[in-house]
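Marked as duplicate of an earlier ticket. Keeping the data here for the record.
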Amino acid sequence: MAPAQKHYSIEDFQSRYLEITKLYDHAESLVGTVESDFVKDASAQLELVEPLISELGDATDVLAEEFLLIAEGKKRRGKSKASKSHIEGALRKIFTALHEYHARVQGAGRKARGAIQNIADPIVQKIQKQVEQVIIIFLEFVQISLHSIMGKMELEALKVRDPRIVALMMHQQAMQQQ
């Protein structure tokens, strides 16, 4: 675990926890796409989004639980009991579910003989951005391996979109060398 030099207030922890649990809201929004008036076949839409909803919910459960362990450890100024492997596994689960969702949408597009954009795509983009924020939160507290969570292309794109990632990775490397 990466020792954080910064003092965090209760409000700091609460705001970070709420950022993590926003993933639940996005999962709920995906459920709403099944019930949308714009969807012709609700069961086909459910087949597209249900695996992502399920994986997102399960992974968010783990991430929220692990963050609470981090917060409790910092509150007691002791070592956190959070599990790096649980955090990385949950994040990897989300990235895998996102890839599988895109593959299902592309498969549906091939069957429809053309490019298809699903009503859930904007929500999936929000999930991607929110997961990136969650990664930044965990990088503040835990030395997680981004290479084990996402592919090289995703990592490079993330570094371009958010320079804080590079700074946090450099900080983690410096902490390992101490």
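See parent ticket for discussion. The longest helix spans residues 42-75.
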